[in-house]
Amino acid sequence: MRFPVKKFFSYYKPYLMLFLSALACAFIVSAVTLVFPLLVRYITKDVLEGDLSTALGEVYWIGGLMLVLVVIQNIGNYFVDYKGHEVGARMERDMRSELFAHMQKLSLSFYDKEKTGQLMSRITNDLLLLSELYHHGPEDYVKYLARFIGAFVILFFINAPLTIAVFCFLPFLGAFTLYFNKKLNKALRRNKERIGDVNAQVEDSLSGIRVVKSFANEHVEIEKFNRENNRFLDSRKKTYKAEAYFFNGVEAFIQLITITVIILGSASIVNNTLELADLITFLLYINFMIEPIQRLTHMSTQFQEGITGFQRFMEIMNLKPAVENKPNAITLPEVHGEIEFKQVSFRYEDHLDNVLVNLSLRIQPGEYVALVGPSGVGKTTLCSLIPRFYDVTDGEVLLDGINVRDIDLQSLRNNIGIVQQDVYLFAGTVMENIRYGNPAASDEEIITAAKHANAHDFIMSLPNGYHSEIGQRGVKLSGGQKQRLSIARVFLKNPPVL
Ligand SMILES: Nc1ncnc2c1ncn2[C@@H]1O[C@H](COP(=O)(O)OP(=O)(O)OP(=O)(O)O)[C@@H](O)[C@H]1O
């Protein structure tokens, strides 16, 4: 996949002014920092080696100036830390909302394949790291590039040969960094997949906690979890190994540069081509040149983490829902409810066998139909084709004579109600769960729907009646009670096709 540069930067757009202000502050802070060694040089070279009777007064002045610079630096850093992070957090919020909205649009065939825990990991961890890159990345580049270039220019004017000697190390350091970047990218990507697996395992084990307990299989779940947890550890160990090589390699380069400066600088003093004050300044500025390179390692890790997070984000964003609206899809007028299957064949995936083959069936409005057959023969599958949870492989499904593929999805599904075999209720109150069938319904309508579903009596016996909390997935209700609520939910929707 080519890296979508335009898309990557598009998330800055709403916060451009704030972001640019933070960048400007980062630049000012760096520029101010560069002044300090120059002031030290001025004191050691010009003030203390000049007329000592006026020296102290001048030192006080310079000290005062340094204080002012410190204040500017701190205000700038405060703005960068606070507003810079805010920009990153806002972008992260936007992307998370976009990703969640996109996931909601993806078809069931996508969820058949993906693990919920993995998806949760993408939407939480990955974006967190990406937001770090979004605000720290450019800030760090501006900050350290300004320091690096500033220090290089100043050092060049102080002593060109010594500066060039230092500079000669940098291409090697660059090549070294590039080599490890690739390794780290791979390692960080693997880490993300592994933590996703851990999440998926937690999600699976905890969702099925009742089954786990009924089989007294806690040890099995612990074993499965530990397997994933250890795989994550192994993956992180590999990352740390690569990082340790990388960080220490860079450290060695830095020490080599410092030693070179000390030796060459001392030799230059002996040869009278450099003054001691200049060597001190040199050593002070060397840090300004080295620090960006030192940070480069951190920045490249941050960069890799952010970029892999973005790539994983785009992998989902680039997925098109398998079932989509056609251009100019029809919004249904009043629906009578005639359903026709015309020589329908269906398989869940290309490599799987057909579940339905050449099936034809017509259901008249007002007709009740029961499909009877062995388990797994395709009864649920057949029902799933009417609201287009999946599209037929061959043939067509018609609602009131219109191919369901030509109907606007929202309009189609608004006219169909389904009580699933596996009842799913949301955490919340009884009232909220029934209202899910029609968010605009009044309390009276909800109570009527509950009465029709034979749920009113048991609801009234709950401690808070319709306002009773039913727990995660309705755990506080019996199986039959859950089914009645889900029937009430569909009655409230009152669709032409049930
Ligand atoms: N999401 C899916 N992906 C792949 N295969 C599936 C999927 N859902 C169902 N199947 C397969 O399709 C076949 C038909 O399943 P379906 O759920 O329609 O059966 P059913 O007749 O409703 O069974 P039951 O009476 O047991 O509920 C089964 O062999 C099943 O394994």
UniProtKB/TrEMBL annotation:
The chain crosses the membrane at residues 15-39, 59-80, 164-181, 245-267. Residues 22-305 form the ABC transmembrane type-1 domain. It is found in: Cell membrane. Its main location: membrane. It comes from the Bacteria. PROSITE patterns: ABC_TM1F (PS50929), ABC_TRANSPORTER_1 (PS00211), PROKAR_LIPOPROTEIN (PS51257). Pfam families: ABC_membrane, ABC_tran. This is ATP-binding cassette, subfamily B. It is a multi-pass membrane protein. The keyword ATP-binding applies. GO terms for molecular function: ABC-type oligopeptide transporter activity; ATP binding; ATP hydrolysis activity. The lineage of its organism: Bacteria, Bacillati, Bacillota, Bacilli, Bacillales. Keywords: ATP-binding, Membrane, Nucleotide-binding, Transmembrane, Transmembrane helix. InterPro entries: ABC1_TM_dom, ABC1_TM_sf, ABC_transporter-like_ATP-bd, ABC_transporter-like_CS, P-loop_NTPase, Type_1_exporter. Signal peptide: none annotated. One of its GO terms (cellular component) is plasma membrane.
